[in-house]
Amino acid sequence: MDDELESYRSKIIGHDDVYVAGHVLVYPSYNGFFEKPGLFLDQMFVRKCYRGMKFGKLLFSTVAMQAEKMGMGMVDWLVADWNEETINFYEKMGAHYIPEYRLCKLYGDQLQAFGKKSDYEPRIYQK
Ligand SMILES: CC(C)(COP(=O)(O)OP(=O)(O)OC[C@H]1O[C@@H](n2cnc3c(N)ncnc32)[C@H](O)[C@@H]1OP(=O)(O)O)[C@@H](O)C(=O)NCCC(=O)NCCS
Asked: Which Gene3D superfamilies does its entry note (predicted)?
């Protein structure tokens, strides 16, 4: 049950029957170790009332698939060390967590696997 449904209604003309369940930002970056451009992931968040409904996986997979399509070597992002639940989620998605740097990285086979998946194409969900 979304008690704040109206606050999260889309302002995009022609899409006002769409509601925001979560968000993620990405920025282009460059990884010196792999000597390849990458994506930096930021502000990954699914609103509480939508958790456990695969929206997190959808957001994460969309970023990873896009990185793969663009030939990026890595997706990386920061996560607070107290945020164990979220770290567990990222590890389940195939990420490597490096506690010293509070950094998560998705690369290699784990990143490439997202390029092969077809069940998480970006789409607009309607409530
Ligand atoms: C982490 C988060 C994105 C997960 O989103 P979600 O929509 O609830 O997750 P999904 O429903 O897509 O779950 C996908 C898979 O991950 C698993 N999963 C979800 N949360 C998990 C957790 N805390 N620990 C382990 N696995 C988890 C699910 O069981 C599911 O597994 P399956 O595909 O085998 O069924 C969400 O809980 C969230 O936004 N948390 C706050 C994030 C935050 O603190 N952001 C700050 C920036 S780092």
From this structure: 3.40.630.30
The span from the CA of 104 to the CA of 89, in Å, is 11
> pLDDT digit string (tens) for 4-47?
999 999 999 999 999 999 999 999 999 887 788 999 999 999 99
Please give the CATH number for the structural domain made up of 17-116: 3.40.630.30
| Pocket (CB within 6 angstroms of ligand 1) | 44-46, 51-57, 79, 83, 85-86, 88-89, 92
Rounded distance from Cα 49 to ligand 1 centre (Å): 12
Check the CA dihedral 64-67-71-72 and report its sign. negative
Q: How many CB atoms lie within 10 A of CB 95?
A: 24
Average pLDDT of 86-109? 96
